[in-house]
Amino acid sequence: MTTAPWRDHALPAAARVDDLLSRMTLEEKTAQLYGVWVGASTDGDGVAPHQHDMSVDHDWDELITRGLGQLTRSFGTAPVDPALGAQALARAQRRITEAGRFGIPAIAHEECLAGFTAWQATAYPVPLAWGATWDPPVVEEMARRIGDDLRSAGVHQGLAPVLDVVRDPRWGRVEETIGEDPYLVGTVGSAYVKGLESAGVVATLKHFAGYASSAGARNLAPVRAGVREFADVTLPPFEMALREGGARSVMAAYTERDGVPASADPELLTGLLREEWGFTGTVVADYFGIGFLQTLHRVAGTPAEAAHAALTAGIDVELPTLKCYGDPLPAAVRSGQVPEELVDRAARRVLLQKCELGLLDEDWTPEPAASVNLDSTGNRILARRLAEESVVLLDNPDGLLPLAPDTRIAVVGPRAADALAMLGCYSFPSHVLTHHPDVPAGIEIPTVLDALRTELPDAKVTFAQGCDVTGPDTAGFEEAVARTAEADVCVAVLGDRAGLFGRGTSGEGCDATDLGLPGAQGEFLDALTATGVPVVLVLLTGRPYALGRWHGRLGAVVQAFFPGEEGGPAVAGVLSGRVNPSGRLPVSVPQVPGGQPWTYLQPPLGLAGEVSNLDPTPLYAFGHGRSYTTFAWEDGTGGEEPAEIGTDGSYDVSVTVRNTGEREGAEVVQLYLHDPVASVTRPDMRLIGYQRVTAAPGEAARVTFRFHADLSSFTGRAGRRVVEPGALELRLAASSADVRHTAHLTLTGPVRVLGTDRRLRCETEVSCVE
């Protein structure tokens, strides 16, 4: 028997795919371009926007005779035992391969934003917590574990990470982002991509591009970002994750920019992504995003017109179902409305990816691993480490923390005794189990209350909820205030409830009108502080909230961004002192709640000044975080006399960080760029490097940043990325508001125009110091 060329391992993938395409009918090619959501309902509320009116009824047995591109969320739609789910997925793949002429399996994809979104799978901290760690290696390790779990269940593609840069913290999906700075988002996001791809899972970058810049922070609202904001803030994390992370898929954003939806934008999805950046993987639609070209954007009159626009732009795969690339697409090709070359282009990319994954090989098998354990001991240990590193001690003015081991503690607040307080909207319990209220969470999630009782067994701990997360009811205040008055210290655990489309205070479609604490929680905190008992505020949230109203009235403030299944013990460890807090803010914490959508990336007119009575200066700056130990910053590179380097030159800037306290701790050394004069307005400060350093008492480390002039580049007036000659300042800082040393530079020589080979990262070196 002669093996067909497309099955021949010895041939290059491109030759195999070309041979296969030449044998396929139009319907077989288009079948590779869509997914099927087998477990999705077509009525009532779903787990995705417009799921009920964008789904398509189909005859599964007839459909798979053409083949199938993708299987949508076999694990992430309803609770299913992981081992049984893996077997069911394998059976579905067997049916697909047996039904089609070529025996090609589907790519199975799942959400994996904060862990595999499946029942009984580890719920890791959300991406905003990854940003708070400032620790890309541990994020990479987490992603590798997530990838291993996905592969063990038969899944090939993960819809993560989110690389949107926060522009307005009122946006509901802030919890899904890594932070408000493109360098932090790019470096941490690239680490996630490396980890997922190292496990053999296709990482999918979301949401390309501009989604987080929506007007008024409303989900899916038009994007108002200008050319330079788009180029210098929105795009760099995607470029880094592709070039350094090796991501093999990109998801087109729902939103439009300047009247052009991303899903119908060939300049973005083909011109920039493929022709300029050289991307060769697949572009997939966000769920129902192609159909939205007709129903929400109204740039297409029919599903076939939407398919034409999306294919022309460069979207290869329609997810999660076949509204436009199903029957409407081949009919449009046969009528001459859509050139078949567009179908061939997309099918070639899909099949090349299937070839990379081994899905075109004769010896491919769908059988799952012998055992599927999605919440292993190793996973939980890593989830605890991530959670502990992500907790930010915002304030501890009088050293109230750590708590004494035998103290009387009143634990109060709506988030203290609720396990879901730890989880973001894309965790399985928050995302799916709300539709299955009788099904248990499937994983152990200690609450702050339970964890604190375990952490401090000699303390006398009482509890009162006080109020709900939302709603005006203050009836519970009296009991909580009474418990507080009887205690030595009050631990008030407040914050968000993750949800979808208005069913929570944080999450997709849960946008905020302002940055005041939800519901009656602000009034509740007022009542607690009025007792005179010291109050430790613990925030479990998906976004920053304005805290200026209580500044100077609280004994301590601890911020955790949905820290995952091990978040309760992590927070309790910080309160007890077992954990020395080392998290740093990935987003600024505002003074006041209303009308100041602000990030630290501001040009001079975006800062406080005499031109306005409104002061947007945050209460706690980007990069801020305190510790139970102290660090001295010594011998920083700098001085009044500037060094000179060319516009293509390099310069090392260093500082010695010494632990001058009595316990081991971690410091995050941050490097910011200040450009005093440029041809366009520039942010007053911009992060270009950072290094997390752990040191025992008395130990010191020398941190060296290898700055290259490329890192000073920006999009000039002509729309090209340039390095301009002139003065620069490199600022070594503990936060964007806490500069410790400054190195002055002068760039000499001509203006340089940069290409796609520009340096994206500031390399660092850490050496021990006696």
Automatic annotation (TrEMBL):
Gene3D superfamilies: Glycoside hydrolase family 3 C-terminal domain, Glycoside hydrolase, family 3, N-terminal domain, Immunoglobulins. It comes from Streptomyces violaceus (Streptomyces venezuelae). Residues 667-736 form the Fibronectin type III-like domain. The keyword Cell membrane does not apply. SMART domains: Fn3_like (SM01217). Belongs to the glycosyl hydrolase 3 family. This is Glycoside hydrolase family 3 C-terminal domain-containing protein. The lineage of its organism: Bacteria, Bacillati, Actinomycetota, Actinomycetes, Kitasatosporales. Keywords: Hydrolase. GO terms for molecular function: hydrolase activity. Pfam families: Fn3-like, Glyco_hydro_3, Glyco_hydro_3_C. It comes from the Bacteria.
